[in-house]
Amino acid sequence: MKLGKLHYKKMTLEELVTLAQQEDFKALEEIVRREQKNIFATFTYLHSNNENIYDLTQEALLRMAKALPTLKNPKTFKSWLNQIVMHLFYDDLRKLNRIPPTISIDDDRKQDNNCTTNPHTLIPDKRCKPLEHCLSNELDCVIKREMRQLPDYFRVPIVLRELQGLSYDEIAKITNTNVGTVKSRIARARSRLKDSLKEYI
Fold first, then answer.
1. CA contacts within 13 A on the Cβ side of 91
2. Are 8 and 18 contacting, i.e. CB atoms less than 8 angstroms apart?
3. Under DSSP, is residue 160 helix (H, G, I), strand (E, B) or coil?
4. Closest residue by Cα to residue 11 from 35, 39, 33, 30
5. pTM reported for the whole predicted model
6. CA-CA distance, 154 to 139, in Å (whole number)?
7. Residue 12's pLDDT is what?
8. Any idea which architecture 11-102 has in CATH?
9. What is the residue extent of each domain of the chain?
10. Are the beta carbons of 36 and 57 closer than 8 angstroms?
């Protein structure tokens, strides 16, 4: 008997990965549904070029689907997936660094993931309701902007820690550094963010 859609939604990620490796398309579909928002969110905190984020998210999901049969331990799926995401991020960063920078005549605020407020205030659009939701959105935009100002070696580990919930060991493996370095960089990133966000929170 085939599992219904609701059964897949109740499964753990490890169970879904195991089924997907056995060519269960519905299980793979559920993995994509769960992970696409996380991947997209990760790229929005890492990447300042919004036009690339959608393409990078799709490419990450495609690579995940193709390489999933090679994953030896389903328990390590999250860490393994984040390695794919980070490889794509660094590859894209190298490509962008080879392209001469251009000056856009558009409002700079468009680069902050459609943030529409003054970057130095937290006054939301009056049309936005409820107010609490608007303020939350605006603060999120500010945090993204400040996060992108961090050097890559600070930004990457703190995103993996705070957004993806990875362990220090997993982050060290992904970033090819030792645990002590990871902890130090995350602490320094938190300190910088605390200083830059103190007028907002």
1. 10
2. no
3. helix
4. 30
5. 0.69
6. 20
7. 95
8. Orthogonal Bundle (1.10)
9. 11-102
10. yes
